[in-house]
Amino acid sequence: MEILSHISLDSALELPIYKQLAGSIRAAIEVGAIGLGERLPATRELAGQLGLNRTTVSAAYSVLEEAGLLEGQVGRGSFVAYNGASTIARSFDWEKVLPPPESINAASGEAKINFANSRPSEDCFPMEEFRRLSREVIQSREAVDILQLGSPYGYGPLRRYLLNENLAMGLARAEDDLIITNGCQQALDLLARLLVGGSDAEVLLEEPVYHGLLRVFASARARLIPVPVGDSGVNVSALEAIASQQQKTRLLVITPDFQNPTGTSLNLEQRKSIVAIAQRAGWMVIESTIYRDLRYRGQALPTLKQLDESGNVISIGSYSKVAFPGLRVGWVIASRPVVARLAEAKQTSDLHSDQLSQAVLLRFAESGELARHLERTKHMGTERLRAVLESCERFLPAGCRFTRPEGGMNLWVELPPPLLAEELLKAAEEQEVSFLPGGYFSHRRSDPRHLRISFGGLSPETIRLGMGILGTIARDQIAAHQERAPLESFAALV
Amino acid sequence: MEILSHISLDSALELPIYKQLAGSIRAAIEVGAIGLGERLPATRELAGQLGLNRTTVSAAYSVLEEAGLLEGQVGRGSFVAYNGASTIARSFDWEKVLPPPESINAASGEAKINFANSRPSEDCFPMEEFRRLSREVIQSREAVDILQLGSPYGYGPLRRYLLNENLAMGLARAEDDLIITNGCQQALDLLARLLVGGSDAEVLLEEPVYHGLLRVFASARARLIPVPVGDSGVNVSALEAIASQQQKTRLLVITPDFQNPTGTSLNLEQRKSIVAIAQRAGWMVIESTIYRDLRYRGQALPTLKQLDESGNVISIGSYSKVAFPGLRVGWVIASRPVVARLAEAKQTSDLHSDQLSQAVLLRFAESGELARHLERTKHMGTERLRAVLESCERFLPAGCRFTRPEGGMNLWVELPPPLLAEELLKAAEEQEVSFLPGGYFSHRRSDPRHLRISFGGLSPETIRLGMGILGTIARDQIAAHQERAPLESFAALV
Predict the structure, then answer these.
(1) C-alpha distances in Å from residue B352, one per residue of A278, A288, B181, B310, B475
(2) Which of A124, B252, B321, B354 is least surrounded by CB atoms within 10 angstroms?
(3) Which pLDDT score, from 0 to 100, does residue B88 have?
(4) At A398, is the pLDDT very low, low, confident or very high (cuts 50, 70, 90)?
């Protein structure tokens, strides 16, 4: 009887032998090794063949009879009554087990004038330098090391370079270490897992805030506390008040320079206050410095890490905004124990970051090409910022308010009632202009009158053209509302 | 008085104005804008300047007096009594908030004969082809797209290529989609987050199993259930038994071909049974196919996904074992809703995978160089496998058992008592030979008599040399135990 080859029993298992036997026979039936209606060996016979007690085999047959797979016929033996075929054909219902989709209403990015993406324009990529330096990396002797399995801390030469640079600039302390991540998004993700994951830690996030930051901490199941950001950055009084009501371990996440989406920066007083509050309250602080080098006006200010003496500030940086977003290289600078734990989390997450891009970006930085590219980017950014501010003044209707960033890629517009960002976007998209409405950046997903204008990737001409279109639409919508208003009042009185 | 410039009040905040005011003053004190011993404005005066009711200012001062920052002197006003300076200097205690370190006892990899790493040898990397094809990618017009922000699903051209290839080979179904990840480690991580994260799902993992797999699901806080793997792969009876005791949603993770660490593969019957059990029990299944193409002997067998008709099987693959581990490119093939949710998780995790490596590997695959390299790798693997099996037979002492893989990079050795893998390792490292002891792959971290021999990255000569050394040490240790035995008995009798 073929059934014997299907039976595997292991006395070392905690599971009773009769259950193991029943499982083996069930499997044999399901794969068709014993057909529907076929007779199984007599219990005495099978027991003999397997060297088991007959009662063990009987017990196994009973289990299968109860499950409806076997049918015992008195005096004749046990027959296969059911092979499970009907259940096998059914399709697995993934929607039942998967979490609901996030349904992110991201702008399609298909519009001709795209104010929706906070990223540099590919027209400005230094392709010639990229090609030359990449060829050097590929031809180098180190290419073999780059292709072999690497370290969770990052490609050694780049890690050393970044740490030395940041120490030299005072952006890392002697007690700090550095780990390389896939852009700053993974830096946030690893930090969220390390500092929040599983605990019920509270996380203080700016409101409005970069949506990727919201998503990371929401998916780490943190309790999120919004900290209002006004025209001049985070409201320190609100932060102070939150500190006075503290219950648990807390993490503050903040972007001191050219915050996404508002474009606002903190002044020196605010920075000092925030560091002092965090130290007093025992908070951990993550500061994002990814836009910091893109300052077009005014004076650079110290980072929170530079003002901090207690070691509770973690800095994250990235090459994405100043070089190539498609090469995913960011980093975390923090006290050594934090970086050591991040390396463990990194290894669990994806072993290590891709080394080819790390090597190319290192060559970019070491050769001075990155600094030269940054100068060009800042020169362009200055023109773009001027264009967007002038266009806001000139084209937006009265009652619109907007921030006045000194750098970065984004600006935050507040529409006067009765205008709504979503309605403006709908009409704008018909004219091939897009942006992200404020709700996208809000903890409560409800911010109907704000919108983000990302100007970093567009030429001054395109910015003027696009803002002109937005201004015209806004005026038209105000006019339409004014025409409709008396009619609506009339209707309400009926 | 300078204090005014430090006060920011916002009636839109939910926080009472007196608390906001107290916060502002506290911040001003902490940053030194008002010095220790200085007098604050009279409540009436400050109320007038701020346009507030005098009682509001008094309430704010009271808060600060209670906190010890101000001291009221009757008839003279309020003075700064404390500026928090002593608390600010203290160093943040990270060890108090961080989770304990994982203390992974990985082998150093410094040994001359390194059986510890399951990875290809860099000596075999096709560097000439890599350099030529990378130059092509870098010079191509697509290079600009590669450097711009990409899609969470992966670099479009590579994603299409992989999906088409897998459809053509029958390894993806028409209902499936594909997403690119940073190697298979991130594939596992994203799947763990999606399918386990936060729920109390039970996850069935092989025992012994790849430690990266254990870590991923442990850090997702899954309840882990070990499924024993014997000389011929997963014990199907045990799986059947687990299915019969099912309580909750369950996920089975399995490597049908050349499992890490045992090197064992499932036969066709086992594969069919596992698919049937999973379908009947309503389990989700993740199968890793990363070693599948490295078959040196015997016939390729269908993947679980190929045998499955219900869509509950998710396949993960990678270029790491067949090309360059340092380029982090893997993928997931699964039903469309699963891939759509994975793309959301990927975006939260790190936006998207690095595109330069994806483009280089695509060129490798499309040009046929990957297939040619795979043939060479398999040819070398055949020799290495033969060398390691012959060496085990020849050098290991009687009583040692070992698996007989038909491919992959790993082999599993069981030492006879009284030998212990950790003791063997200690002596081996003194002679520049390393491997990973079994505990590293065990759910309970206790598997004292097994060890993994990774032979994929070593030449046949090195394998013979290394196994010869291990064999000699093992014999010596057995002999030492036998010599010691009577002495120990004697000592015990004293």
Answers:
(1) 33, 19, 8, 29, 52
(2) A124
(3) 47
(4) very high
We find that the CATH architecture of domain A373-493 is: Alpha-Beta Complex (3.90)
Tell me which chain B residue has its CA closest to the CA of residue A313: B92
Q: How far is CA A12 from the centre of its chain?
A: 45
* Residue B401 in tokens: 């058992």
Distance from CA of B465 to the nearest CA of A (A): 24
Residue B338, pLDDT > 90, answer yes
Closest CA to A380 of A456, A440, A311: A456
From the list A13, A139, A147, which residue is nearest B238 (CB)? Answer: A13
Contact A227, A235 (CB under 8 A): yes
Long-range CB contacts (< 8 A, 24+ apart) of A43-46?
A46/A3
What pLDDT band is residue A485 in, cutting at 50, 70 and 90?
low
Over the stretch B464-483, which tens digit does the pLDDT of each residue have?
999 999 999 999 999 998 88
Cβ–Cβ under 8 Å, residues A374 and A453: no
Q: How far is A486 from chain B (nearest CA, A)?
A: 30
Q: Is the four-CA dihedral A115, A120, A126, A131 of positive or negative sign? A: negative
Which of B310, B341, B354 has its CB closest to that of A101?
B341
CA–CA separation, A137 vs A146, rounded Å?
9
CA distance B476 to chain A (A): 30
Asked if residue A90 lies in contact with residue B312, where contact means CB atoms within 8 angstroms, the answer is no
Q: Which of residues 87-126 of B touch A (CB under 8 A)?
A: 87-92, 94-95, 97-99, 101-102, 104, 117, 119, 122, 125
Chain B partners within 8 Å of A12 (Cβ): 228
**Structure ipTM:** 0.82
CATH topology for the B372-493 domain: Aspartate Aminotransferase, domain 1 (3.90.1150)
Among residues 266-295 of chain B, which lie with CB inside 8 Å of chain A?
269, 272-273, 276-277, 279-280, 282, 284
Task: Give the mean pLDDT of chain A.
Answer: 89
Q: Rounded CA gap, B247 and A18, in Å?
A: 21
CATH of domain A2-88: 1.10.10.10
Q: What percent of chain B has pLDDT over 70?
A: 93
Q: What is the residue extent of each domain of chain B?
A: 2-88, 124-367, 372-493
Residue A292, pLDDT > 70, answer yes
Contacts of B447 in chain A (CB under 8 A): none
Total-model pTM = 0.83
Which of the four pLDDT bands, split at 50, 70 and 90, describes residue B488? low
Q: Is B189 on the interface with A (CB under 8 A)?
A: yes
Q: What is the mean pLDDT of residues B173-188?
A: 96
Chain A interface disruption, residue of B6, B63, B92, most A CBs within 10 A: B92
- Cα separations (Å) of A34 from A3, A56, B134, B228? 7, 20, 55, 26
Q: What is the DSSP string of A207-255?
A: ES--HHHHHHHHHTTPEEEEEEEETTEE-HHHHHHHHHT--S-EEEEE-
Q: Does domain B124-367 have CATH number 3.40.640.10?
A: yes
Cα B361 to Cα B126: distance, rounded to the nearest angstrom: 12
Residues in B touching A328 (Cβ below 8 Å): 350-354
Across the interface, whether the CB atoms of A327 and B22 are under 8 A apart is answered no
Instruction: Give the CA distances from residue B260 to residues A63, B160, B422, in Å, rounded to whole numbers and listed in that order.
Output: 35, 29, 19
Binned at pLDDT 50, 70 and 90, residue B494 comes out as: very low
Coil/strand/helix, residue B52: coil
> In 10 A of CB B479, how many CB atoms?
11
**B contacts of A347 (beta carbons < 8 Å):** 104, 185, 212, 215
Among A241, A249, A360, beta carbon nearest to B97? A249
